[in-house]
Each structure stands twice: as C-alpha cells, then as structure tokens.
Write a structure and sequence with these properties.
single chain, four-stranded antiparallel beta sheet, globular
Length: 305
C-alpha cells in the first residue's frame, strides 16, 4: 500500500480486521517462523533504513508487541541520531514518484548537502529498503542517502511496471531525473555533490540519464551496466534476449527499434561534458556480457569533453 508492505490481522471469529502499525515511515516487514496454528501470537521481522534487522512477537488480541532480537551493530551505533522519510516527487506527466530518504537528524536542508541517490526501475522489481551499517560513515559526514522508486519497478503494483517498460520505458529515466531535481529543489542535496548509482538494469538507467542530463550529476557509479541494449537484443543466443523482449522491445520491429534508440546508452554517447564515472563489470555475469561495459567505457573515453 503506497509502496510499503502491510500486515493485516483478521479475527475469524468476528471478521474484524486491523493493520499492524509500524514505527517508521519507510521500512520492510514480513512474517517469519509462525509454526503454531492455534496461537494469539504472530512473529514478524522488521527493519528500516534506521533500524537493524529485528524480530517481534505481536499479540493479536492485545495489539501489543515485544522485541525479541535486534541485530547488533558494532562501533556504538545510536539510531536516535538518524531519521528516515518518505517523500513524493511530481514527475513531468503529473505522476507522484515515491523516494525513501535517510539522513542525520541535524541535517540542514539548505541545498548544500551531498547525496547518494540510487534506483533500479525494471522488471517490476521493487527497491525495498534495508538497514546497512556501511552507510553510517557517510551519514556522519552529512551525506543524504536516497532511493527513488521509479516506474518500471513494482513498488506501486503491476501498473507501475507497465508504465516503465516497452514503449513506456522513457518514464523510468525521466522519473529519475525529476526525482533528482525535486530533491535539489527541496534542499536535500546539492547538484555539484550529487552521486548516483545503479547496477545491471539500474546501470542502463545510469547510462541513459547521464546521456540525457550530464550536467545534473557530479559522479556516477555504474555496476555491471546493461548499456548496449539494441545490440544485445539483436543477439538471440544471449540469455538476456529472447525472454526479455516484453521488457525492452524487439529492435527487429521498426517502431520498437526507434523507441529503444532514444535511450540506448551506448548508441547515444556523444561529445559532452560527462560527470565523473566509474564502471564496474564482471567476466562471469550471465546477463550482462563483459564486453558491453568495456565498449561503452572505450567510447565514453573517446567522446567525453
């Protein structure tokens, strides 16, 4: 609901239902280890951008919970120093796109902070939020951590995926750009200190938005990026091709080729002042062949101004 998982408890004796309230605006929750059938207790796991992975027992009749375990974070982590937030950016077509934010409570929203902004936005896959202690060092240096839940993902249901695939794929990229501009305008980030990151299909996102708005980002981290879309989709011997025509389109059809040609990262590289970019790839990835990021990098080096 609204891009967040919910647990609803129904009393089968009365058919009355209630939702278990969660303590934070952005979180991940799921059922776990409920081996007993006839019991008033429900066990669930919970974590957020601020709270480490935890296990609760919930009394469904009293509507109260008991914390059984919270994963220990070494180094004196104090979660009361940090806060998370869910905001919505208006995309250029009026769609409201959710963004999950994490930062120190003493952040001044004066447009001067550095930001790490990530997204995926493909296959109907949701970018669920998780706790990661590696972020604490960045948070303590004033960096804002953000995840944009752009169209093409699954956070807002099947329609969210459909609005970001095939002949709607450009929404994925324009949503990300609109989210970045919104965060800058709202004072969460500085344009000259905005770093973006995505991997695999999220690397396609990185390549597309960097071509479209190279001025908007200070640096880009692109992990095993799917950046040679048209050539890959023309090679039916590759594992990323035949089964994925319904995600990207078939470049053997002229209208679909022309649409893909708008955003294909490799095909759209040009003589531009690109931001600093690190491209990381793998010899053994079964989906993205190593030569895709390699040729993309070579062409980028030849063209960047």
């Amino acid at each position: 609901e609204g891009g967040l998982p919910q647990i609803v408890v129904t009393d089968l004796r009365t058919n009355q239902a209630h939702k278990i309230t969660m303590p934070e605006p952005v979180y991940t929750v799921g059922l776990t280890g409920n081996a007993e059938w006839g019991t008033p207790t429900l066990r669930f796991s919970y974590q957020s951008l601020v709270t480490p992975s935890s296990v609760f027992d919930y009394d469904m009749e009293k509507r109260s919970r008991v914390l059984l375990k919270e994963t220990e974070v070494l180094g004196g982590y104090d979660k009361s120093r940090y806060t998370s937030e869910r905001v919505f950016a208006k995309a250029r077509d009026g769609t409201m796109v959710p963004i999950s934010l994490l930062y120190r409570k003493d952040l001044k929203k004066d447009g001067r902070a550095a930001m790490h902004l990530s997204a995926y936005g493909s296959y109907g896959s949701s970018s669920d939020v998780f706790f990661n202690s590696n972020r604490v060092s960045l948070l303590d240096r004033g960096v804002v951590i953000a995840t944009a839940h752009i169209r093409g993902g699954g956070e807002m249901g099947t329609a969210w995926h459909d609005q970001g695939r095939m002949m709607n794929k450009m929404n994925t990229f324009t949503d990300f750009i609109d989210c970045a501009e919104f965060l800058i305008k709202q004072g969460y980030a500085s344009q000259d200190r905005l770093v973006i990151q995505g991997g695999s299909a999220g690397g396609l996102l990185m390549g597309a938005v960097t071509n479209m708005r190279p001025d908007l980002f200070k640096a880009v981290i692109s992990d095993v990026p799917f950046v040679d879309v048209i050539n890959t989709m023309l090679d039916e011997t590759l594992p990323l091709t035949v089964g994925e025509v319904e995600e990207w389109g078939n470049p053997k059809k002229m209208d679909e080729y022309e649409y893909m040609r708008q955003y294909d990262p490799y095909m759209n590289l040009a003589a531009k002042d690109y931001p600093a970019i690190v491209v990381r790839t793998s010899f053994n990835d079964s989906q993205v062949m190593y030569h895709e990021p390699a040729k993309y990098t070579a062409r980028m080096r030849a063209l960047k101004t």
